[in-house]
Design goal:
Largest sheet: 10 strands, antiparallel
Distance between the termini: 23 Å
Strand content: 25-35%
CATH topology: 3-methyladenine DNA Glycosylase, Chain A
Mean pLDDT: 94
CATH superfamily: Methylpurine-DNA glycosylase (MPG)
Structural class: mainly beta
Length: 171
């Protein structure tokens, strides 16, 4: 089996609109015990870009929930929705410039809530550093896929122009 190279801080500390499409085809690796890792190819993501983006949680300012978004890229931002699902996000950009990529789908699991349930993501992953963690990281395996773009899903509340930004990327 071919394993990839763990993504470094330099990958994550760039603008979300560069990082998001480049996450397509990368693998989320989750260590379930000392000798077992599960791997999931990222197939769909959405970009959320700073305090000006009305669809981004950071648009409401710095809160206990969003604090990790204000850190430098490479951290995990998870939050709970509908009383049943954790949403997995990868923080990007420089410190104090809150941006994140929502992981919407991985190979085998489509839908951000379903995928977190199936791959074992919960609130304990909040703030985890993807460049240093022993239990979760993302690898570049060299897979290149034809990427499509379109508007983000379920954010009509953000209004124009935010609800129609083509910041969703998938294969």
């Amino acid at each position: 089996m071919n394993f990839g190279t763990r993504l470094t801080k330099d990958f994550y500390t760039r603008d979300v609109l560069k990082v998001a499409p480049e996450l397509i085809g990368k693998e989320i690796v989750i260590r379930s015990d000392i000798n077992t890792c599960k791997r999931f190819v990222i197939k769909e993501v959405e970009a959320y870009r700073g305090e000006e983006d009305k669809a981004c949680h950071a648009s409401k300012g710095r809160t206990k929930r969003t604090e990790i978004m204000f850190d430098e890229g490479g951290k995990i931002y998870v939050y709970f929705v509908y009383g049943m699902y954790w949403m997995l996000n990868v923080v990007t950009g420089e410190k104090d410039n809150p941006q994140a990529v929502l992981i919407r789908g991985v190979e085998g699991f489509k839908g951000p809530g379903i995928l977190t349930r199936e791959i074992g993501i919960d609130g304990s992953f909040y703030g985890e550093n993807l460049t240093q963690s022993d239990r979760i990281w993302i690898e570049d395996t060299g897979i290149e896929l034809q990427i499509k773009t379109g508007k983000r899903i379920g954010i009509d509340y953000a209004g124009e122009p935010w609800k129609n930004k083509p910041w969703r990327f998938w294969v």
